[in-house]
Amino acid sequence: MKPTIYDVAKEAGVSISTVSRVINNTGRIGEKTRKKVLEVVEQLNYHPSVVASALTGKRTCTIGLIIPDVANPFFAELSRSIEDHGRELGFNLLMCNTDNNPDTEEMYLSLLKQKSVDGIIIGTTTKNYNLLRELQKEHFPIALIAQDIPELMLDVVTVDDFLGGYMATSHLVSLGHEKIGCILGTLARTSEKYRYQAYRQVLEENGLDFDEDFVMHTDYSMEDSKRAALELLRSPKRPTAVFANYDSLAIGVYQAAKELGLKIPEDISVIGFDNTILASIVDPPLTTIAQPIHEMGQQVMDLLVQEIEGRKNTKRRLVLPPELIIRNSTKQIR
Amino acid sequence: MKPTIYDVAKEAGVSISTVSRVINNTGRIGEKTRKKVLEVVEQLNYHPSVVASALTGKRTCTIGLIIPDVANPFFAELSRSIEDHGRELGFNLLMCNTDNNPDTEEMYLSLLKQKSVDGIIIGTTTKNYNLLRELQKEHFPIALIAQDIPELMLDVVTVDDFLGGYMATSHLVSLGHEKIGCILGTLARTSEKYRYQAYRQVLEENGLDFDEDFVMHTDYSMEDSKRAALELLRSPKRPTAVFANYDSLAIGVYQAAKELGLKIPEDISVIGFDNTILASIVDPPLTTIAQPIHEMGQQVMDLLVQEIEGRKNTKRRLVLPPELIIRNSTKQIR
DNA sequence: CTGAAAGCGCTAACAA
DNA sequence: TTGTTAGCGCTTTCAG
């Protein structure tokens, strides 16, 4: 059987509280006793039970990560960076995929609390505001990543989506494009709304007509983006450039263009958003707006842990700068 | 404060054991008491603490998932399917990325035990055999995924890597290729070894010369695969086809070919392995060997849970059939 | 500096 | 059918 604190205490000839103290480095301990205890700990290969210590009010050192889908490269890369920093700070991640389904999300929220996680990081486009409000009222540590909920005062880390959308559209305009399509999801994410707003603003600032028919809605999948892009590109007043709100949607545009025999970027310029691995492996490599995924993961974990450790009493909104990554999918118009 | 079983008991006018019984559906309970208790549970929004019940010997309903890197699409997709099935069975996943670093892995193994997970799924190319043996001796539930360790008798789910390698190479041979390159990682994974063995066997069976110079080793990264492919394709005795042991390595070949102005599949045929999302989005779409990722995730979770619940006393090796997915990166040789 | 003892929230005999 | 009680392994006063 796994050794307990009692086994160590007995073997070392001290009381369990002494063992507890040396393990946790609390209180003052005689040098010899400490040494003796540590020795026995080593010898018995003793590892304190996180479960038991959690029951006495300590942390579980576990954090819930709620995302739409880890198979989505953006969230996969984000998860990875969050996990990396979590490991440095001593926290593990409980992975929860919801596909943005509110019921699944609600289920997870309640499950995570039952499991006494120390905090939760949310990357889904939640609509469970009331649930979040409750958690907030209980001062349960929550942080949002890559997605804001302006109505709620929570810790949040995002890229500057408006600026990103602005940069993307401006890039296209600067290349001489005047007919610019926009492929969105369902506008459920705030991030997407900002990008879209920026798109419209850039058009306006440049005296370009906004054409309702140039903005296409999708269910966020590549297939649906392909469908939307086909529609867009087959239209007689075909745009010369497309701003896809996510790299994955940009791939759909690639597929549609290929099917129609249109060359990127000669016939149509495409810009994405996220700078996931996808952007660099498609042909031609995708010009896109990079989110500082690595830093975002790190920062959100930092914020949450500060919250957990009570080292912070104000919520923070961290908005990181996006970066335009010019590759070969955009081109000066003839 | 979160309500405890005591709050419920008091409110319902029964003892805590009665509450415990109705919560867990154990023992016989009077219909009215059950109803009353359930009512109070609802009213107080009571959720039993997993931590406390774990301390009394019950499960934590948490499983450790040790993989090299969730940002790798293959493992991302696999994680997703494991998590999905875990959710159905009532288990959560603690995500652990190790980059195949034995120290990180050892750290996680010990951490997961401290956290009293009910079992562990391992997808890394571990070398910590001794650690695994110890866990095995304690009858700690462990299952291997996408990776075998023949020396250890554990539950394992893999694709038939030998057959997959056989199908891949045979496909190339059937297209008339006689000079076939092979891009490997470091041969640390058993799966890779089998694929490589099959490659050699197919060559032999078809009376084709095996050329040492045609097999390239990489560190599993796309960049390194590109480097290796450049070397391979620049050589005077350039192969007409390449079998890349992973889709990601195949992408490296694409990049090298592009750099050298070689057309796929006209100048060089490429076949990958895994059938991740990458295979379908590159241009041309990659012919590859599909692993039944979804089923693998499901099966490994099933096996592990059976083990955890003691419903199984023999270890199982499940070898699933691969499938050749012909797309456009392979072509009959002129 | 160290030990005794009272919990943390829940389960599982054992009684009643 | 229901209640009482002794832990599970650990932390934390409170004494000494």
The topology string of helices and strands of chain A comes to: HHHHEHEHEHEEHEHEHEHEHEHEE
Quickly name the level 1 CATH class of the largest domain in chain A: Alpha Beta
Distance between the termini of chain A: 76 Å
The number of strands of chain A is: 12
Radius of gyration of chain A using CA atoms only? 25 Å
Describe the overall structure.
2 copies of one chain form a homodimer. With 334 residues, chain A is of the alpha/beta class. Chain A folds into 3 domains: 5-48, lambda repressor-like DNA-binding domains (434 Repressor (Amino-terminal Domain)); 62-160 and 293-321, Response regulator (Rossmann fold, 3-Layer(aba) Sandwich); 161-291, Response regulator (Rossmann fold, 3-Layer(aba) Sandwich). In chain A, 46% of the residues lie in helices and 16% in strands. Chain A has 13 helices and 12 strands. Chain A has a 6-stranded parallel sheet, with helices on both faces. Chain A has a 6-stranded mixed sheet with strand order 7-6-8-9-10-12, with helices on both faces. In chain A, helix 1 (5-12) crosses helix 2 (16-24), helix 2 (16-24) crosses helix 3 and helix 5 (73-89) packs across helix 13. The longest helix of chain A has 17 residues, at 73-89. The first copy, chain A, is elongated. The mean pLDDT of chain A is 95. Chains A and B meet through helix 4, helix 5, strand 2, helix 6 and helix 11 of A and helix 4, helix 5, strand 2, helix 6 and helix 11 of B. Chain A binds a DNA duplex (16 and 16 nucleotides) through residues 4-6, 14-21, 23-24, 26-30, 33, 48-49, 51-58. Chains A, B: Keywords: DNA-binding, Transcription, Transcription regulation. Chains A, B: Pfam families: LacI (PF00356), Peripla_BP_3 (PF13377). Chains A, B: Residues 3-57 form the HTH lacI-type domain. Chains A, B: This is LacI family transcriptional regulator. Chains A, B: InterPro entries: HTH_LacI (IPR000843), LacI/GalR-like_sensor (IPR046335), Lambda_DNA-bd_dom_sf (IPR010982), Peripla_BP_I (IPR028082).
